[in-house]
Amino acid sequence: MKNMVSIICATLLLLPYTNVFSEKGTWVSGHYTCGFFLNACDSGNINCTGGTMWAKGYLSGLTVGSDIPREKIDDDSLKYALIKYCRENPLKKTEDAVASIFRELIK
Questions:
Q1: Rg of the Cα trace of the chain?
Q2: Quick one: pLDDT at residue 84?
Q3: Could you state, in order of their start, the residue ranges of all structural domains in the chain?
Q4: CATH domain 27-105 topology
Q5: What is the pTM of this model?
Q6: Is 3 helix (H, G, I), strand (E, B) or coil?
Q7: Number of neighbours of residue 90 by Cβ within 10 angstroms
Q8: Residue 11 and residue 33: Cα distance in Å, rounded?
Q9: Cα dihedral sign for 60, 61, 67, 68?
Q10: For 15, which DSSP code?
Q11: H-assigned helices in 1-107
């Protein structure tokens, strides 16, 4: 019981110092630079799949947020659309690639 009380007290004391409670705003995590993404895909690294799945979720969020219906995009098509964009724009981010793909889909 004393250990439980100690843990709760320590947690409450440290709570104000965590970034989760002190920073305001929207957090975007998961996007890569195009160079990192391309390197991961070229080397067969798991980050290629992770970047594609992140892009799929981000694209879904854009679609839901704008009430624009879209057809299902398979993972391979999205992956190669990301690769194409990143090869043409190596200094950009995968977040920019998804925005470009989204604009293409709503035409």
A1: 19
A2: 97
A3: 27-105
A4: 10k-s Protein, Hypothetical Protein A; Chain A (1.10.890)
A5: 0.68
A6: helix
A7: 12
A8: 36
A9: negative
A10: G
A11: 2-14, 19-22, 34-42, 46-66, 75-88, 94-105
Read off the tokens for 6: 């100690």
One digit per residue, the tens of pLDDT, for the chain of length 107 reads: 666 666 665 565 555 544 555 555 544 456 889 999 999 999 998 889 999 999 998 988 888 877 676 667 888 999 999 999 999 999 999 999 999 999 888 87
Structure tokens at 16: 């104000």
CA atoms of 83 and 88, how far apart (whole Å)? 9
Tokens linked to 73 = 């995009």
Exposed, middle or buried, 52 (CB in 10 Å: 0-12/13-18/19+)?
A: buried
93 beta partners? 33
